[in-house]
Amino acid sequence: MPIAIKLSDLLIEDAKPYAQAMHRSVPKQIEYWARLGKVAEENPDLTVQMLQDMLVSIEEVKVGNLNPYKFG
Question: In angstroms, rounded to a whole number, what is the distance separating the alpha carbons of residues 70 and 72?
């Protein structure tokens, strides 16, 4: 359920170049940062890169982009 929230102008300005570089809207970029921050707080022993890889993996599973692992 979307809701309207007020964000600082500084946060919005900080997000603009990242959003453009990652082909996201500014709100989606801020949402991504919020998700990553939440996951980082829940997993303080993992690196940001590992957390980003996990988020990408979750999205790959959602769209059915799976390859079975072959042992040996």
Answer: 7
Query: Cα–Cα distances in Å, from 22 out to 26, 28, 31, 71?
Result: 10, 10, 13, 35
- pTM for the whole structure: 0.79
Q: How many CB atoms lie within 10 A of CB 61?
A: 10
At 53, list the tokens. Answer: 């890889």
What is the tens place of the pLDDT at every residue in 2-48? 899 999 999 999 999 999 999 999 999 999 999 999 999 999 999 99
Every domain of the chain and the residues it spans? 9-62
